[in-house]
Amino acid sequence: MESYQDTPRYLVSVDCVIFGYEDEKLKVLLCPRLVEPNYGAWSLMGGFVMPEESLDQAASRVLKSTVGLENIYLKQVRTFSEPNRDTGGRVISQAYFALIRLSEQDRRLVSSMGGQWWEIKKLPTLIFDHQEMVDESLRRLQQVAFTNLIGRELMPEKFTLSQLHKLYSVVFGKTFDSANFRKKILATQQLVKLDEKETMSSKKGAFYYRFKKNEEEQ
Amino acid sequence: MESYQDTPRYLVSVDCVIFGYEDEKLKVLLCPRLVEPNYGAWSLMGGFVMPEESLDQAASRVLKSTVGLENIYLKQVRTFSEPNRDTGGRVISQAYFALIRLSEQDRRLVSSMGGQWWEIKKLPTLIFDHQEMVDESLRRLQQVAFTNLIGRELMPEKFTLSQLHKLYSVVFGKTFDSANFRKKILATQQLVKLDEKETMSSKKGAFYYRFKKNEEEQ
DNA sequence: GCAAAAGTGTTACCGGTACACCCATGT
DNA sequence: ACATGGGTGTACCGGTAACACTTTTGC
Questions:
Q1: How far apart are CA B48 and CA B51, in angstroms?
Q2: Nearest to A28, CA basis, from A155, A152, A128, A135
Q3: How confident is the model over B53-65, as a mean pLDDT?
Q4: Is the C-beta of residue B187 closer than 7 Å to nucleic acid chain D?
Q5: What is the reported pLDDT for B2?
Q6: Chain B closest CA to A76's CA: distance in Å?
């Protein structure tokens, strides 16, 4: 039984700001639009919400179908709902941001729809309000990075403190004192020092670290 | 011209957690539902989104039509979208939280629809996921109160530091050291000390303060 | 030996917390 | 005079910023 007769209904979509980290750059996945209007213009990964799924599930589905990954870090950013934001009709869109490990993406799948990773500071012109979605997502990411510890989702399995330091510098667009950075990071006790060293980028070599698994005692 | 044919459409609503402060209690406005299903059950103030308005505008309209106020502090909380959250049909709802000065409400309007203010810790059973909306809104309010300074919207024009202290105690459900509280609050430089004293609740009398207007130099 | 990155140590400062204490006044 | 809430001062602690310093190793 359905109540609420004669009430207007709307298209509802999710748009995902998918962040990845590679070559010491923070990147966002963009895709040429596959539908009119603005066919071919650069756009975030998105999709309409299906009748049997929640918005979170819709966003997960988009992630699965665009980069081939499941159980991804996903957070609501904000709902974008200006009546004329989409020139093709009224669409209310929930923006999400996602963090993925670039090495784990399904590159074939991504390229099959023309997906490309763009450095966040050098994006092309995006459709509608997608640039705003990216901007707000970055701010959220900074917020998260400030209180928690990012990297678990963006960095490879093992990494050096210098590499993590670099990630933070890129996310915030400024450099942190590296001595203080390592102390602060290690104080969180979320990292485990490995026996192995990374020797490519320095003569002395830097120890690898990895994030503790959830099971491991904090 | 309308693109996106054959794509499912949904009812979209906003639900507002309207906070007020009175008698040293944090209160939320509830209303008996005026529509089926669950006619008469306690519910947040809400409404469906109209074709020509954004979600923010819809929320503002709800505020205007329920407490008679405009230009109200309103923030998105989260979108609630479980397919079966509303037993009357699929409704995707954006939760908002609002802060108002209880003395300024249109009491006649509020009571005309049976609206009642409930102490936040003693709410009746709410429909659907509205309790969850309240819980998340309170958490947001605490977050805001932590970083900024709440009270501008909740307190009367002039108030004593003790009264503001009490508000914070109620919002966080714990007491703060009052000596430190006043120092911290005054350090923000957002308050102006008035010449007048409040003499009802103490023999010595406490000075009134008010918030600086935006124009005043910070 | 020197450059370059890894990693450690030292100091100063700032904000928060705890708490002792003084003030004004109605009863 | 004393109880009550208003209001101030101070000592301490922990986190952070700034920066000097040591270590390792390839060239």
A1: 10
A2: A135
A3: 98
A4: no
A5: 65
A6: 7
